[in-house]
């Protein structure tokens, strides 16, 4: 009964502000973030202009431009892409689409390879979120948040706006995107659609011991659709947003090359529906947002060559998530003190047919946050307390109840200190729950997995050094009950390791410089370097004690050069440098995956017409020097490949 009362109270709280008298409201806050690049690694942005200079294929590729992020890429276009940040798995980060969290409690992480990039206005990565953004509670209590803002979500009173993009590339890549937005006096409607296909039959070379063999990647095709509709309404005091997104894909699962054969035939079918609604209100110095989201993901795995009595294996999963919440921000004492807080209720279920799922689980989660932002005497203070109330229904009618507290303390100097710059300090404690897959699917079965806890300490600064913008962050993380998942035969079957304690320490360095900024020519450079030492401290008797955690590179680097002529012709060069990694926590030569360096180049031409139209043509060469490389062992990546992109924007 106490749990029922708790969730009923949580639900009522989330809608409590709807009954307020709106007659006294004076203004409306429109949450449009500034497209500015920050050298604070706790708050990083990638703008639309930067994205257009990258030969991107999806959001996963773009996130490599964020300091501290390590991408796990399982096969290029259409392949699974997940990330970690400073040795902390992506399960601790919330991925948001237009400030709505994307949920998948079956696997815990969002596949960034399935999120389209053509309509992105900016990407923002936060470890400390400004309360005025009114992000959902689930992102405020997470270790980090990755928010993707799209063209369709931005309100516009323009009568018509149009975006079109078409790509054609190597290995029969074909990608078309179209979006139309209609503006009224205080309303706007946008509808979009995208189709992408790819046969994935790229050649590769692979060294097996001292022997090299050449082959063609097979069963690596992809066909996917994205579509949706956005609605926005604004009056003097409030804003409504509603959106529907649909995603469908069919892809082959080529598997790791060590098991590779020409008869691989495993397939994965995915279908996602997302419905989001939010209401933003401003009353004097009080801002609030009420939001709700329903998401369902259907997944079917097929293996027609499976050796059993039926001669095939078909597994169906349906992951359902419902969330509703309220978040608010109160300004006090002439902008020097803000109080913020909120609550969110989530319900997650997983239903399966013909699978190894031993139970159809259900989980209720209540999340609460309360904090203050203090702007006083040249310093900015951010203090925050979080609480998770979790009720998980398990096998045999047993329910497990957990109450977990966490928090965040952040201090930043607002004015420059000579030599030091703008120093900042943060301590943050967060947690993530074991996923349904980790708990209940016996192919990745770990019965007694505990929540993974993370303690983060960051000391950083931003400064100018001889016309260079420089950002430096030193950090240390203590991860307790670390959960590691590693693919086995293919990308659908995984094994889980709980390695106990992991201590991570490292540094992020960002440098940016504009050498020329004239009407005829501009030259911009940017570099990012990350050092990560993520060591297993679980047991002194373990062979992996004080050794690097699987697939965490010690050194990562990004170098970008952009040259623009007459603001019409641009040349872009980008290099990605990744040091060697280990496939297991035992750091021996047989577990070593070699590092690599990649170079991508592109040249673009764009022009604008008097009718507020812009045309752009881009030609890109990825993996310019045809390097043979892998992010994950046995999941080989494409060699040199090409991409032509044509885009059109009206207003």
Describe the protein:
This protein has 651 residues and is mainly beta. The chain has one domain (2-650): TonB-dependent receptor, beta-barrel domain (Maltoporin, Chain A, Beta Barrel). 5% of the residues lie in helices and 58% in strands. The chain contains five helices and 36 strands. The protein has a 22-stranded antiparallel β-barrel. The radius of gyration is 24 Å and the shape is globular. The termini are far apart.
Give a quick set of tags describing it:
five-stranded mixed beta sheet; 651 residues; disordered N terminus; 22-stranded antiparallel beta barrel; 5 helices; Maltoporin, Chain A; 36 strands; mainly beta
Secondary structure blueprint with pairings:
Blueprint lengths: L1 H13 L28 E5 H5 L6 H4 L6 E5 L7 E5 L2 E2 L3 E5 L2 E2 L18 E7 L10 H4 L3 E7 L9 E10 L3 E11 L3 E12 L4 E6 L2 E6 L5 E13 L3 E15 L14 E17 L2 E18 L9 E20 L4 E17 L8 E15 L2 E15 L5 E15 L8 E11 L3 H5 L11 E14 L2 E20 L6 E24 L3 E16 L18 E11 L3 E10 L2 E2 L9 E2 L2 E13 L4 E10 L7 E3 L2 E2 L4 E10 L1
Parallel strand pairs: 5-8
Antiparallel strand pairs: 1-7, 2-3, 3-4, 5-6, 7-8, 9-10, 9-36, 10-11, 11-14, 12-13, 14-15, 15-16, 16-17, 17-18, 18-19, 19-20, 20-21, 21-22, 22-23, 23-24, 24-25, 25-26, 26-27, 27-28, 28-29, 29-32, 30-31, 32-33, 33-36, 34-35
Low-confidence stretches: 1-38
Q: Termini, distance in Å?
A: 56 Å
Oligomeric assembly: single chain
Task: Count the E strands.
Answer: 36
Shape: globular
What structural category characterises the helix and strand content? mainly beta
Q: What does the radius of gyration come to?
A: 24 Å
Top CATH class: Mainly Beta
Per CATH, the superfamily is TonB-dependent receptor, beta-barrel domain
Taken as a percent bin, the fraction of beta residues is over 45%
In this structure, how is the largest beta sheet organized?
22 strands, antiparallel, barrel
CATH architecture call:
Beta Barrel
Q: With helices defined by DSSP (H or I, 4 residues minimum), what is the helix count?
A: 5
**What's the domain count?**
1
- The name of the CATH topology is Maltoporin, Chain A
